[in-house]
Each structure stands twice: as structure tokens, then as C-alpha cells.
Design a protein that fits this description.
By secondary structure, the chain is an all-alpha fold. The protein has six helices and no strands. α2 crosses α3.
Length: 153
């Protein structure tokens, strides 16, 4: 690729390779992980500020509670989302499920479950966030309705 540069191509390519060899991957990975963590905490802090504004809550939660609540939202939300996708994808490959699908009432139920389950789990992830992110007690029914609207819509 550097051939059009002529005689300087060898020198430039050796400098590029030298730079790549000097990169410390462990430090780069740690800096990336720390940056990702700070970004997630900052993003969830902004979401909490917005929810607190909607719920008219003036005081933010303490840092220790923020850390534990944000960690639970960051861990549980993706687990619910990927569980929905994984269950739907793996159900069809099981031999027992294939035999049950061949029977008519189970085939229709499998098809409907495959359509509804991802939306329900996404709605549950939204409802979980609606319960844990604001710095107030949110009614489970209100969070479920909001999560259903956000997950289906």
C-alpha cells in the first residue's frame, strides 16, 4: 500500500510497525473499560435526572445507592433482552420441541409464544428500569404499563 511513496515506504512501514509493537494492550484495555464504565454511569445519571424531573424529585440519591442501583440495571436489563432472543432462537432447534410443534395446538402456541416472548422480556427490562432508576418508589403497575408501552411501541 505504501509503494507509491517510493524509497520512503520501507521507513514509514517500519515506523508504523514499531508504533504497533509499543502499544500496551493491557493498559489500553483497562483505559477502555474505565471509559466505558464512566460513560455508563454518566448516561444512567442523566436518565435518572430526567426521571427525577418527571416525578418531581428534587434530591438525587447517594453515590453508594447510585452505584448499586445502576449496576443492577446494567446487569439485569441486558440479561432479560438476550434471554428473550436466546430462548426464541434455541426453542426451535430442540428435537422434543420439533415434535410438539408438529402437533396442532402446540404448533400454534409455539408460534404465538415466539412472537410475544421477545416483546414481553423487552417490556420487563423497561419496567425494571422504570422501577429502579427514579429516586422514588414507583408503583409496579405503573412501571409495567410504561414498560409494555415502551417494549411494544
Amino acid at each position: 500500500m505504501l509503494a507509491p511513496l517510493g524509497s520512503q515506504a520501507d521507513e514509514i512501514s517500519s515506523r508504523i510497525i514499531g508504533f504497533v509493537e509499543n502499544v500496551q494492550v493491557g493498559v489500553l484495555g483497562f483505559v477502555g473499560l474505565a471509559t466505558l464504565f464512566c460513560t455508563v454511569v454518566s448516561l444512567l445519571g442523566r436518565v435518572e435526572e430526567s426521571f427525577n424531573h418527571i416525578w418531581r424529585i428534587s434530591r438525587p440519591r447517594p453515590w453508594t445507592r447510585r452505584f448499586s442501583d445502576y449496576l443492577s440495571v446494567v446487569l439485569v436489563g441486558p440479561v432479560l433482552l438476550f434471554a428473550g432472543l436466546g430462548i426464541t432462537a434455541s426453542m426451535g432447534s430442540n428435537a422434543l420441541v420439533q415434535r410438539l410443534i408438529a402437533l396442532e395446538p402446540f404448533g400454534s402456541a409455539y408460534y404465538v409464544t415466539g412472537l410475544i416472548l421477545p416483546y414481553l422480556l423487552i417490556s420487563a427490562a423497561f419496567a425494571f428500569g422504570y422501577i429502579f432508576i427514579p429516586n422514588t418508589k414507583v408503583d409496579l403497575k405503573s412501571a409495567a404499563v410504561g414498560g409494555l408501552c415502551a417494549g411494544v411501541g
